[in-house]
Automatic annotation (TrEMBL):
Designated name of the protein: L-rhamnose mutarotase
InterPro entries according to UniProt: Dimeric_a/b-barrel, Rham/fucose_mutarotase
Gene3D superfamilies named among the record's database cross-references: 3.30.70.100
GO process terms (BP): rhamnose catabolic process
A Pfam family the protein falls into: rhaM
GO molecular function: racemase and epimerase activity, acting on carbohydrates and derivatives
Domain of life from the UniProt record: Bacteria
Length: 108
């Protein structure tokens, strides 16, 4: 399993709304993520809007492509686009910047 970390920028004036949307992620969206190969997926949000995501996947590109063809992801991304800056109208899941892993503490 590969580990991936990414970042995006949430509009500071929309932080509360963004957090609220993620308190109740649609069950069909969660199922689609799992079914398409997203595992151990977490989002972290700094108070200035810096969003850090972490996900494990055998192949993130394949997992993204699998999500891209789902109807639920199309609906979700359409609603999420308004929360972000710097994505130039693209869906957030096509706009994040992957961060290179530089250290990982191995389990014994």
């Amino acid at each position: 399993m590969n580990r991936y970390c990414f970042c995006l920028q949430v509009r500071p004036d929309r932080l509360d709304d963004y957090v609220e949307r993620h308190r109740n992620v649609w069950p069909d969206m969660q199922a689609a993520l799992r079914d398409s190969g997203w595992h151990n997926y977490s989002l972290f949000l700094r108070d200035d809007g810096l969003l850090i995501g972490y996900v494990e996947s055998e192949d993130l590109e394949a997992a993204q492509k699998a999500m891209a063809v789902t109807e639920v992801n199309t609906r979700w991304q359409a609603q999420m686009t308004e929360f972000f800056t710097g994505i130039d109208g693209r869906p957030p899941d096509e706009s994040f910047v992957l961060l290179p892993e530089i250290f990982h503490l191995q389990e014994d």
